[in-house]
Amino acid sequence: MAGLPGITAGYLIRGDRPCLVETGTSTSAPVVRDALHHLGVGPGDLATVVVTHIHLDHAGGVGDIARAFPNAEIVVHEKGARHLADPSRLMASARMVWGDKLDVLFGDLSPTDAHRIRALGDTGSIDLGGGRRLDSHYSPGHAKHHVGLIDSQTGDLYVGDAAGVYLPATDDLRPATPPPDFDLDTALASLALFRSLDPARLLFSHYGPVGAVPQALERSAEELRVWTALTRQARADGLDLDHAVAMVRDRTRSRYRAQQSDDASAEVAETLSGVASNVAGIMHWLDRTEKP
């Protein structure tokens, strides 16, 4: 993503019905396609493509991957399905937020034929073959079209962005609270749901597997509370968004090794979980739910 490795993960579940979880951006789609071919998954072999939500770093490559693998069913929560069939509104909104950076970071989401899309409700199941399932659980808070996915055989839980952003190089775990959908109470409830599923591992879309499940989920909840408390304080002090971002960046710097580094890890952290985006999302939630 954006020329940086180790940012966004796509996961191949091997089996009787091979399944790809997350496509990454459209600019990453050729990398994903070639990797699948290298692993022996030809154009007619992929049975399912499922995305945890429709943000462009997770689902931006859906249209391209759907064309490359014409037999694959595309699975998404029902609140995101129409945007995969007709991404014009989603792309217009993204262009307003990102401007010219959109082309570098994400590229364009191509439409997917509506008849190939299966929309999930608050729970659902994806057949992986041989009695194995990928069970979907609605987990908003980060986004209203977000699901977590747990493998019935391995216990692996694909957490999308609902548990935040994990940076394996520095062992940092940062929140992901962008506007307009972030809701603290809903986000914490999603983490509680994940705990109740008793997963064996958390598979982060950003980036990679984490085996210490209870500790990681508790840390995710702590990060949400810390960032929300700091943003609430900035709002109570009457700071505008730019000054609130500066304050939160300064007061969270010591929490993350990546932010104390001079190498590319700081750039990766900001690309995946930008302070400005996180604070704006929390501010938006506070403006909806709390009086100034």
UniProtKB/TrEMBL annotation:
Q: Which UniProt keywords apply?
A: Hydrolase
Q: Which Pfam families match?
A: Lactamase_B
Q: Which SMART domains match?
A: Lactamase_B
MF terms per GO, please?
hydrolase activity
Which CDD domains does UniProt cross-reference here?
A: ST1585-like_MBL-fold
The record ties this protein, via Gene3D superfamilies, to:
Ribonuclease Z/Hydroxyacylglutathione hydrolase-like
Metallo-beta-lactamase domain mapped to chain residues: 7-206
Q: Which domain of life is it from?
A: Bacteria
The record's annotation in InterPro entries points to: Metallo-B-lactamas, NDM-1-like, RibonucZ/Hydroxyglut_hydro, ST1585_MBL-fold
Q: What SUPFAM superfamilies does the record point to?
A: Metallo-hydrolase/oxidoreductase
Q: Which PANTHER family does this chain map to?
A: METALLO BETA-LACTAMASE SUPERFAMILY LIPOPROTEIN, METALLO-BETA-LACTAMASE DOMAIN-CONTAINING
Protein name, UniProt field = MBL fold metallo-hydrolase
